[in-house]
Amino acid sequence: MVERVRRPVVWRLAAVALGATLLASCSGDDEGGADATEPPPAQSTVLQPGRPGESNQTLAPGEYPDDDSYNEVDVEFVNGMIAHHLQAIEMTELAKTRAENASVKGLAGRIAAAQGPEIHAMAGWLEARKLPVPEGASGHGGHGGHGGATAEHDEMYGMLTEEQMKELAAADGAAFDDLFLRGMIQHHQGALAMSEKAQAEGSDLMANEMATDIAADQGAEIARMMTILDQLT
Length: 233
Prior knowledge:
Elements: H1 10-24, E1 46-48, E2 57-59, H2 72-98, H3 102-128, H4 151-156, H5 162-170, H6 173-201, H7 205-232
Antiparallel strand pairs: 1-2
Helix pairs in contact: 1-3, 2-3, 2-6, 3-7, 5-6, 6-7
């Protein structure tokens, strides 16, 4: 059996580079400006490291490495995670004006700064494979379509229901902080389940990279949110 070599891919570099730019416009635990979470266009170029002795390359989304075959699970994961991220950013937008705790405000800003660029990196993955991109993925950081996901699918993967989102939008101060943390923990736990399925059943190298990184980041954020929640209660 031929061992598949895991080479660096550009997905994470795109998200990190764009996220650093966005995070620079948010001050730590402050609310940040109105455009702090607005991601750049999906066509942003990114840097792909070369192999030892080789120079780096600048790539556009259409040039992302796609030498691995993808399957239905990969496509479901990318589409589902875009919708998942869009709702998370919608939640962080509410935190700008409703959160009271400085740690909650700072966490919300960091989530938005990371997930906005990740949406565009995932949109680039779809574009490179000439697959449809969900509504909202390349226009702005929230209020996007679900790409055909069902209510049962959303509940399975931690998406907040319409009722939960309305309750969150109606809350303020300490009540909002509590609902936000509990809702985002639920949300992140769903992302972990999505990532685990993609890692186990997907076949595309970059999609696997996405799933691995998202699981690591959101697992760490769950621990952080549980700590903050304990401090508030």
